[in-house]
Amino acid sequence: MERRLVMIRHAKSSWANPLQSDFERPLNDRGERDAPMMGERLKARNIIPDLIISSKAKRAKQTAKKIAAAVGYDAENIIWLDKLYHCIPSVFEETIYETHNRVKTLFIVAHNPGITEFVNELSDQFHTDQMPTCAMVGASFEAEEWNQFNSARKTVFLYDYPKNVT
Quick one: pLDDT band at residue 18, thresholds 50, 70, 90? Predict the structure, then answer.
């Protein structure tokens, strides 16, 4: 069975309030525009999630909700995980392994630097120095279960970001 994983870095956040905690930083105006635009790009490619999992940080939650709305996914069904906040690549793998096998297309919304490190491990055919804000990397692979993710051969089929002119 073909499975698809789409890793999404949160959209551009605001630094307007220097006293605000990093966890509570919201999207800035550009982020508010970019997230739904990137969701529309996913919808145009017919990349629709069966499940969205996101960091609980405010900017990630806002990004996940805007992308969900754009692709027609019910935001009430997003799973919010504390452990995705500034996590290391192995936490993404753990999250993937815990995904129910009925899910064929999974979106994960999270943060740098871990998300860039993780996507660079997906395939020898793909590398990025840094995922820009609201960038998306999609990988497909054949597996009966999500817990076969690590051993499956993955093909990166998507790399897009707001300033990418396609």
Answer: confident
Structure tokens at 122: 């997906």
Identify the structural domains of the chain with CATH numbers, from first to last. Answer: 2-160 (3.40.50.1240)
pLDDT for the residue numbered 75: 97
Is residue 157 exposed (0-12), middle (13-18) or buried (19+ Cβ within 10 Å)? middle
Q: Report which DSSP code applies to 156.
A: E
pLDDT, one tens digit per residue, over 78-122 is 999 999 999 999 999 999 999 999 999 999 999 999 999 999 999
72: left (phi over 0), alpha (psi -120 to 50) or beta: left
- Longest CA–CA separation in the chain, Å: 48
Distance of alpha carbon 53 from alpha carbon 110, whole angstroms: 9
| Cβ-contact 109, 10 below 8 angstroms | yes
Cβ neighbours for 134, distance < 8 A, ≥ 6 positions apart = 8, 9, 10, 11, 12, 31, 34, 35, 38, 63, 161, 162
Q: Taking the CB of residue 94, how many other CB atoms lie within 10 A of it?
A: 11
Q: What is the pTM of this model?
A: 0.97
